Amino acid sequence: MDLLSDIEKQLKQTSAQGFLIALSGGLDSTVLLSLFAKLRQKQAHLQPSVRAIHIHHGLSQNADNWAKHCQNLCDQFQIPLVIERVQVDKTNGIEAGARAARYQAIKKYLKTQEVLVTAHHLNDQTETFFLALKRGSGLKGLGAMQQQSVLFDMPILRPLLGFTRTQLEGYAQKENLNWITDESNEDNRYDRNFLRNKILPEFRERWAHFDSVVQRSAQHCFEQQQLINDLLSESFAEHCQIKNQFKLLQFRQYSPAKQTALLRMWLAENQLEMPSKRQLTQLINDVVFAKEDANPQFHLVNKVIRRYQDSLYLTKPFSDLTKCSLKLEQNTLSLPDNLGNLTVQENKHNLIFYWQDYSVTLEKTDLPISVRFSYSGKVKHHPKRPREDIKKIWQELSVPPWERNRIPLIFYGNNLKSAVGFFRVFDES
After folding, report:
1. Strand blocks (E) in 92-132
2. How far apart are CA 32 and CA 20, in angstroms?
3. What are 155-201's pLDDT values in tens digits?
C-alpha cells in the first residue's frame, strides 16, 4: 500500500477546507507533515490550506530544542507553524494531564471547517486497544481509534491508522527525514511505554500480523457499539434532551446492562473517555441510587457527575466559595472561579448590579457593599410572603445545590439584599 496515494484518497473523501497537523517532531508526525507537503505540491490548486501546531509541554529539558526542530521542519516544507506552550496538570498523572493540555490548546487554534490531523498509526491502535482492555472498558473503549472521529468537539482525521510504524520508518529513510526522539518513550513506568517496549514486541515476533488482527477486533467492537447505539437511540433521546443532563425517569427499572449502555452513550455524547466497568458500577451505586436528600458526586477525569431532582448533571469541578467575601469598592468586581465580572451602574436613587445575563436594581446605601456566595437563614424574597428558609427558596427556583454557592449575593453591611438574577430581599415593613 502506498502512503501518498492512500492519504490522497482519504482526503478526497473529506469536506474539510483546511488541515491542522499535530506536530510533535517525532517520526510519525514528521512523516505526516512530509506527506501533506507532497500532496500540496502535487495538486496545489485542489488542496485546502495546511498548517501545523506544536505543543510545548515543558516536561523535558529538550522541549525548547524540539520546538526549534519543528520550526525548521515547517520552514523546510513551507508550512505555517503555531507553537503553543502549555501547563500540564499532573493531578491525574502526567500522561492524562499532557493529553488534556494538548487538545485544549489545539482547540483554541482549530478554525471552522478545519480538521485536526494526527499521526496515529496501526501500532498506536494496538496500544490503545490494550490500554482500554487494562481499564476494563466496554465496547466503546475497545473500539479504540477510528480514522475519522470527533474528540473534545474537534473533528479528527488519522490518515496513517492503516500503516505500521515499520512502514513509516521505511518512508522516512527513503525521504531522508530527520526527527526527534522523546527520551520519556523509554520510561516503562508509563503504561503505554510498558506495552510498547516490553509486551507487544514479543506478540509481534510470534504473530506477524498481530496489529492487523487487533485492528479487526477493535473494528468489530466499534461496529457492535454502533449497533447498540442504534437500538437504544429512542430510549437515549428520552433521557438526554440536554447534552450535559441525563434524566433518570424509569432508569432504575432497566437491566444493569441497559443502564450502563445508556450512561456510556451519555458520556460519549459529552466527549468523555469511557470509564471502566468498576467506575460505572460505582457511579450507579453512589450517585444514581443515592438517597433522595443526598448531594452525591462522582469525579471522572476533569469533570464531575452530580445528581439533582432525578437527573444527572455533568459539570466542571468547582472551588469552594462558601467563605469568600469580596468588598465592592469600584464599578467592576472580578469574581472568583471563572464566574466573570459583577458591574455596577448608578443613577439618582439606585444601584444596578449586572452579572452575566442577569441584573438587579437596589436602592443606594451608605453601608459597605460586599459580595458573598453563601448564606443560611430565612429571608423575605416576596413582598406578600413571610420569611422563608433560603434553602427552600433555592429549591423552589430549581437551582441545583452546587450552583447555589456560585451565585453572587449582594450584602449591604451584614444584610443580604439580593441573589443577582434570582431574587431580592424585601424589608419586613
Report:
1. 114-117
2. 11
3. 999 999 999 999 999 999 999 999 999 888 899 998 999 999 999 99
Cell numbers found for residue 339? 464566574
* Size of the chain in residues: 429
Backbone angles phi and psi of 32, in degrees to 5: -60, -45
Contact 137, 97 (CB under 8 A): no
Q: In this structure, how many other beta carbons lie within 10 angstroms of the beta carbon of residue 21?
A: 24
Q: Which of 296, 294, 274 is nearest to 286 (CA)?
A: 296
DSSP 367-411: S-EEEES---SEE--STTS--EEHHHHHHHTT--HHHHTTS-EEE
Q: 83 exposed, middle or buried (CB, 10 Å; 0-12, 13-18, 19+)? A: middle
pLDDT band at 294 (very low <50, low <70, confident <90, very high): confident
Cβ neighbour number for residue 358 with a 10 Å cutoff? 15
Q: Tell me which amino acid residue 151 is.
A: L
Residue pair 212/164 in contact by the 8 Å Cβ criterion:
no
- CA 23 vs. chain centroid, Å, equals 20
Give the separation between CA 158 and CA 160, rounded to whole angstroms: 6
Separation between Cα atoms, residue 216 and residue 228, nearest integer Å: 19
Nearest alpha carbon to residue 289 among 315, 254, 264: 254
Task: Report how far residue 48's alpha carbon sits from residue 60's, in angstroms, rounded to the nearest whole number.
Answer: 34
Residues 6+ apart with CB under 8 A from 50: 18, 19, 21, 36, 37, 40, 79
- With contact defined as beta carbons under 8 Å apart, do 211 and 123 qualify? yes
The model's pTM is: 0.74
Under DSSP, the state recorded for 350 is E
